[in-house]
Amino acid sequence: MSPDxxxxxxxxxxxxxxxxxxxxxTVIYSSLAARIFASRVSVLTATxxxxxxxxxxxxxxxxxxxxxxxxxxxxIYTPQGRTQLTRPSPVVLEPRHVxxxxxxxxxxxxxxxxxxxxxxxxxxxxPHVFIGVTPQGWLRRWDASGRVWPRPWDAADLVLPRAxxxxxxxxxxxxxxxxxxxxxxxTRLLVVTLGKEGCRVFIxxxxxxxxxxxxxxxxxxxxxxxxxxxxFIALQRGTPVLDACAFANCIAAHSVTRPxxxxxxxxxDIERCSTIAKRRS
Length: 281
Prior knowledge:
CATH architecture of one domain: 3-Layer(aba) Sandwich
CATH class of one domain: Alpha Beta
Order of helices and strands: EEEHEHEEEHEHEEEHEHEEEHHH
Mean pLDDT: 94
Helix content: 25-40%
Distance between the termini: 34 Å
Strand order of the largest sheet: 5-4-1-8-9-12-13-14-15
Number of strands: 15
CATH topology of one domain: UDP-N-acetylmuramoyl-L-alanine:D-glutamate ligase
Radius of gyration: 18 Å
Structural class: alpha/beta
Strand content: 25-35%
CATH superfamily of one domain: Ribokinase
Low-confidence stretches: none
Largest sheet: 9 strands, mixed
């Protein structure tokens, strides 16, 4: 049986200055958030054999492609700003890595972190599959030292026309609204997240503002991933676009009031946010 949600992308090991290494990556937060809303959730990823997928992905079907290393990220903060370093897995995730019925999931979330997800997942998808895209990892390049730099989205012309919804942070493109408007003109729905200000939604190229609830932030980790997951599932189930965005804004806002995976949606969050979304209708 096809899953309700399939997230595709590398998990990461996030390296901290105090020596800690913690699991990260969009597929972790997106799949665990999806598990709140859906019974059958799968992940396609690549890791070293030492990465404990069973512990990180409870109640999620994981298709693991063997890799000599697990992708790592390290953030170094200086007075001049943040420097991000990566040591990526060399594995490119392709449709051949998962059974065909898994690729027919109700929602397929393309969630690259280091340009590791093949555009073929979009171009070869069956028409009934909802393709959700968070392109952040397609916007990164890195030099020999591992330092991360911005890059153009080379596969945009392949992915954007097929995507049912694309979610990008304004920070992903350093505030380049001209670029974002060009993406909006080539895809069905582009949602630009604006942090505590909510999101700007481009429907048929026309912008609409959807505010987020004001909350006290504790930890923003994973909030954007949970926003995207909530939005994709709501849209696939037929929720009107602006209502779905209001619902996803609310879920993401309340996620930042709790640290890390404690920010996953709770029944109280869902009830509260469903009420907010219904008020728009």
